[in-house]
Fold this protein.
Amino acid sequence: MKEQLISFETAKLAKEKGVKLDINGLYWEDGSYDSGENALVYEEFQDVMSAPTQSLLQKWLREVHNIDVNVLPYNKTKKEYEVYVDLAVTTWSGYKTYEEALEAGLQEALKLIK
């Protein structure tokens, strides 16, 4: 099983909120992805956004900002998931995959950071 990287949209929001994490790669302003050694070289450039895994960003939100993002089964027969962002006391449901639900929750959690 391979860890899912955050999306380009989530990476842009994370950069706006000052997220600094060990990265698996980076996104350029045009949305293209770069991994490996190049990511470490270009990380400080203004036109790039770090691309950590979803779970690493989830952990950072929990440990640094005390914001929990939880994904739970919503409808097992339809294999749908719901996401719950702890600090916002908000729930969204109907996501087709766990990762899709987590991505939405990460974006909402980042929006809570002042």
Remarks:
- The chain has a mean pLDDT of 86.
- Strands lie at 25-28, 33-35, 48-50, 69-75, 80-85, 90-95.
